[in-house]
Amino acid sequence: MEKSHLIAIVAAIIVIVVIAAAAIMLTNGGNDDKKDNGGNTPPATPTTINSPSEYTEARLWVIGNADGNELLDENDVEVIQSIIDAKGSAAKYPMADANIDGAIDSKDIDHVRGLINGSQKTINYYNADGDKSTYHYTEKVNAISLHRCVSRSIILVTNADSDRYKLVGSDPHIREAEFNAANDYPDLVDVGAAGNPEIEQIRNLENRYGSVVVNLGNVATYTNTAGLETIFASDPNVQIVRLETWEGHSTEGILTWGFLFGGVGYKSPAQGGNGLSSWDQALKYVKYVDKYEGVIVDEVAKVKESDKPKVLALYCEGAWPNNSSNKTRGEGSGDMEMSVLCGANNIYQRFGNGSVSYTPEDLAAHARDADYIFSMSGGMFDGDSTLAKRAVDVFVDKANGYITPKTTIYSVSWQLNGAPHPVQAVVFGKIINPDSAPIQKLSVEQCWEEYRGLMGWSDRPEMAYSNLAIWYGPSHTTSSA
Amino acid sequence: MDLEIKDMCFGYGDQLVLNNINLRVAPGRLTCVLGPNGVGKSTLMYCINKLQKPRSGQILLDGRELSTISLKELAKMMSFVPHDEDDTFSMSVMDTVLMGRHPHSGFNHTKKDYEIAAQNIKLLGVEDLTMRNFDELSAGQHQRVLIARGLTQEPQILMLDEPTANLDVKYQMLVMRMLKDIARVKGITVLVICHDLNVTAIFADDIVLLSKGGVYAHGSPKEVLTEENISTVYGVECEVTEVEGVPHVRLKDGDYLDSHIEDTVKAFESEMDPGQ
Amino acid sequence: MGLRSIKGKGIQVAQGADVETIVGTYRSSSRRKVFGMLFFLLLIMLASGIAMGIGSYEISFTGVYSMIWEHLTHWSDGFTSVDMRVVWEQRLPRLLFAIISGAGLAATGAAMQSMLKNPLADSYTTGISSGASFGATLAITMGITVGGFVGNVGIVTNAFLFSLIPSAVILGLSVMKKASPSTMILAGISVMYIFNALTSYMMLVADEQSMSAAYEWTMGSLNKASWNTMPIMFGVTAVGSALIFYMSRYLNAMNAGDDFAKTLGVNVQRIRVVLLAIISIVAASIVSFTGIIGFVGLVGPHMARIVIGSDNKYLVPASMLTGATIMVVCDIIAKAFTHVAIPIGIVTSLIGGPVFLILILRQRKEVW
Fold first, then answer.
1. So what's the ipTM on this one?
2. In this structure, what is the dihedral angle of CA atoms B67, B73, B77, B78, given to the nearest 10 degrees?
3. Between chains, do C58 and A318 touch, taking CB under 8 Å as contact?
4. Collapsing DSSP states into helix, strand and coil, what is residue B273?
């Protein structure tokens, strides 16, 4: 067979397979981005939930939260009672089986009441992999975080009362300026990066502090950590907690963490409590997120898929295109998910699944109809905004003629890329939805400053919005040929 | 070309191989070098064509000191035919023979180059092998091709190291006859290392007999190939008769084997025939 | 060595033929060699068209050539379409890179084999590849470059300069100790071990991203192809190959053995040194841009040898043609299956190995 024929056939097969894969992905993935707009009236009877991934409305994954809202309260007890009356099975109503014994009975009601009044120290919850996990409530939380994003979230939820919570170990990247590690966490132990935690260090911390909680995300993203549960299975003093921070939803994990660390027996100020707890903090965060992302999600929901702007997020290195670290930001990168949340039709899959290398030719083949390109580049984690500008300039220069001038290019600097989810969402949202008045009314500065307050960084002037370099753009190529 | 060697010594380390060689080889004649294994016949040739450097003494070509002649210049005057050649990456026969023109030609071969090569190929009777690859040939064919190459170099001194070792009797005679004729007709000096005493006797104009690092005898076959000389140099008994003016050496088996060989042979014999 | 069957090995000369026939037959055979090479050239052009037609951006076979033609004839108009831009800025440089590196590696490989009388030699035998890897890894993982250049320039200059060290060692040895071919090969191997050990250590202690970048460099790729980098590689390769071609008759002489070459008046030592220097510089200039593309320098000459024989005057140009062809075909394969081109060094080795085995099996020579 002639070489050109063979190649044509192979190319055709590849094209068909990719289209099929894309079709499958698009129909299967991502319906779980809808956000609940805060607990209003909980549904009286729960719908049938077969797995946590279907549980799109609830954000508190403590098992016992039978009504699927953000709170564990008497409403949940009522719902469980109605299920008992209806003789519902645990298989049909998994969130009602608070003590995970496979049956829905009065023991579950006792369990939930115990969590509410503080007598029950065992909390069952669904973790980031959809597995049932058990956490034993502890007065003092010595937290180890295995990724900078995890660190950010842990600091958030444990910020409320630092007597009870201590960040004792983390990955090396927490040395970034935002965490102020040298000042605020001088005893912090480096336990290795997300994919390669150092067991020895974890044990050292266990010995020093008596008990530690290791916080990380799902097994797929934290690839080499799957063995951690096995290693520490018989050790009650080391608890492995997997809850999302950045792999999926913006608030996923925060509420559950908040509850694990401070929700048992929580009494709000109205109930006579002191209002300082990670649970409290988590609730505040959720409300803050809803204030911004709620608007974005609602507005985006009104837009027809075919009207959504085509967007591509790219990682660009200065030496591009003569190196291979230039990759699209595909699923799992966070940037892709963010753009979709903010109303984009992300076209990354034209290049291949996941984050793949691209050449100028690929841009010509796939991205000529892109409305926006968001570029990210290494070295920007130094917080230098000149790098953001330079990255865009290099990209524009090299992509000139391969993409059209109608494509608007923005670069994303560290401080935005590392910024909390809602801040990024407002930036992306405003760029992608120029015609939406409610989204345009949102203020990036305000969003940041609120976050800054929540994190307890108000006394750090360098964290003021005016000192941050957020992004560079819009930019355009000049030649369409 | 006149070749003269004066007081030449050659050795490895402190071991002397050739000691005080004095020799004059005349042009227009076929001169054969004889001697036992390891006496230094090849070494002598290597000193002459500058592959080895003698420790002392002089080698003169037409009165010129060899040390003053560059390899390149020497190659135009002298050619060497080795016993055989490694045939990794060998070329066709014609290409191999054409290599002999290397000292005389530039980047491209001229018509004359091709003709000279073809003539020598025909002379050695290997024209049907012209386009064949060197590594496809037998040892005997190898030798003829290499001789053709040596001739193609059109030297004034032609040196050959055992050129007839793998040839059948017909080709042995043919080659030696041809070398003798070429020496006479073209007036060049031909120096050949040989082992076969009788073939040498028939064709050589002069014989140089080396023994124990020196020239034992130098002269016509009749003068050199005597029973005493052969006995002294080779340690072998023979009877030399004259056939049509040419000495004929008839070797004799006998009790002149080296002592340790004799013991071994005796032990072997007694094994074969016990009780003897 | 026994007689082999001839099996139709082209025109033969009959017994008893005269001088004119002998010469005529030889010269017509030489002419056929030249035509054979021209045919190969045509093959390369065809393969080039196919190679340039593959990529995520769709361009037809004829489209490629028409884009090349149009740009050449309307040079001052610049790029008038995306097709033209893709062909000229992306595909053509890559193709030319493939051709130049293939030709250069094969030409130096042929020279190396003849010079060392070793069928397993190629331009990397002297340790050039390990020197280049060392230099590149030094730049990538530790940022240490000669002259303090950064980025790609630093990697290229490092690779180039360090690749010359092994050759320098061997050259020094040859000059000082009158080294034989085997000594040269052994010296090259020793240097290779040293450099490889150092390179491995650097990769071990490097962070993941640097390590994978360094490793990828050693895989050999055409990704750095661009019009900026091409002049150097082209110039050095062209000049070097021309010099090797010019010295082909010395290579022929050395093929017959050092000693015999001397009797032809060839100053073997000096020629060897000069050749080694040329080979090193050409190979180094290629390696520093492409990384290590193995196998082409080894197989290209052998493929040419099988067809055209060991006369270096034809072997060197023929090797350049086979080397270029191998590279273009491997480039086609590298791009045909996945969206991102497989590093070409992997393809050349994967494809080259079995192809070479088949060639050897089909041959009747037992010499190698």
1. 0.87
2. 60
3. no
4. coil
Q: Looking at the partner chain, which of C55, C82, C223 has a beta carbon nearest the beta carbon of A324?
A: C223
Note the maximum CA span of chain B.
75
How far is CA C85 from each of CA A366, B184, C77, C323, rounded to the nearest angstrom? 15, 76, 12, 28
* Three-point CA angle A99, A246, C208, nearest 5°: 115
Distance CA B46, CA A37 (A): 101
Domain A55-120 has CATH 1.10.1330: yes
Two tokens, residue C121: 């030699």
CATH of the domain at C106: 1.10.3470.10
With touching defined as 3+ CB pairs under 8 A, do chains C and B touch? Answer: yes
The neighbouring-strand residues paired with A122 are A136
Same CATH fold, A297-477 and A55-120?
no
Give the separation between CA C353 and CA C264, rounded to whole angstroms: 38
Tell me the CATH architecture of domain A134-247: 3-Layer(aba) Sandwich (3.40)
Q: Mutate which of A359, A366, A403 to disrupt the C interface (most C C-beta within 10 Å)?
A: A359
| Structural domain contains residue C131 | yes
Which residue is it, tokens 């001397």?
A: C262
Pairing, β B238-243 against β A310-315: unpaired
8 Å CB contact between C123 and B92: no
Range of the domain at C124: 86-362
Q: Is C266 on the interface with B (CB under 8 A)?
A: yes
Give the number of domains in chain C.
1
For the CA atoms of C298, C301, C303, C305, the dihedral, rounded to the nearest 10 degrees, stands at -140
Q: Which of B218, B221, B182 is nearest to B200 (CA)?
A: B221
Q: Are A330 and A336 in contact (CB under 8 A)?
A: yes
Residue B157 C-beta-side C-alpha neighbours within 13 Å: 22
Instruction: Spell out the alpha helix ranges (H) of chain B.
Output: 41-48, 71-77, 93-98, 111-123, 139-152, 169-186, 197-203, 221-224, 227-234, 259-272
Q: Which chains lie within 8 Å of chain A at 3 or more CB pairs, if any?
A: C
Which residues have C-beta within 8 Å of that of residue A39, sequence separation ≥ 6?
A: A69, A70, A71
The reply to whether C274 falls in a domain is yes
Block residue for tokens 């009356």: A85
Query: Which residue from B2, B4, B1 is spatially nearest to B57, judged by alpha carbons?
Result: B4
Test the C interface: residue of B45, B51, B89 with most C CBs within 10 Å: B89
- Taking alpha carbons only, the member of C252, C267, C298, C313 closest to residue C115 is C252
pLDDT in tens, chain C (368 residues): 222 333 345 788 888 888 888 899 999 999 999 998 998 899 898 889 888 888 888 888 888 888 888 888 888 888 888 888 888 888 899 999 999 999 999 999 999 988 888 888 888 777 888 898 899 899 888 888 888 777 778 888 888 889 888 888 888 887 787 777 788 778 888 888 999 999 999 988 887 778 878 888 888 888 888 888 899 899 999 999 999 999 999 999 998 888 899 999 999 888 988 998 899 899 989 988 898 898 899 889 988 988 888 899 999 999 999 999 999 999 998 888 776 678 888 888 888 788 778 777 776 555 44
H or E element at residue A444: helix A444-455
Residues 362-381 of A with CB under 8 A from C: 362, 364-366, 368
Please tell me the pTM assigned to this model: 0.78
Q: Do A401 and C85 touch (CB under 8 A)?
A: yes
Check: CB of residue C245 under 8 Å from CB of residue C163: no
CATH topology of domain A297-477: Rossmann fold (3.40.50)
- At A447, the amino acid letter reads C
Which residues in chain A come in under a pLDDT of 50? Answer: 1, 20, 22-52, 55
**Pairwise CB contact (< 8 Å): B82 & C260:** yes
| pLDDT tens digits, A115-157 | 999 999 999 998 888 888 999 998 889 999 888 888 888 888 8
